[in-house]
Amino acid sequence: xxxxxxxxxxxxxxxxxxxxxxxxxxxxxxxxxxxxxxxxxxxxxxxxxxxxxxxxxxxxxxxxxxxxxxxxxxxxxxxxxxxxxxxxxxxxxxxxxxxxxxxxxxxxxxxxxxxxxxxxxxxxxxxxxxxxxxxxxxxxxx
Length: 142
What we know:
The structure is a single chain. With 142 residues, the protein is an alpha+beta fold. It has helices at residues 13-21, 43-54, 73-76, 99-104, and strands at 4-11, 36-37, 63-72, 82-83, 90-91, 94-95, 106-117, 137-140. The mean pLDDT is 90.
């Protein structure tokens, strides 16, 4: 059995929908102006981005989701952990051209842990954020 590491990724509405379309089996390819895929090392950092950046942002659909996923640890060894602010702000920089290979090393599906809705959210009802689900928390952003 291969050792895994749990990583996190904050995503907006469109990326969340694309992840759901493939049943959580991978993240969508990066856009031309996105040279890296940035998974983060801890849930608190992912929550901060989802709540403080995604939820207020029109480009994210005024919603931020916190996802968690397990990746084969030996594969991740090629990517150094980068601290991009405080000690909490640790992430990996996966080149966009390596994302398909990264997805191939996921173990199990991508899980949605939390959803943060900005005051301007007018998108669809989110069927994968059921009320009362102990594994998913829908919270209004500040």
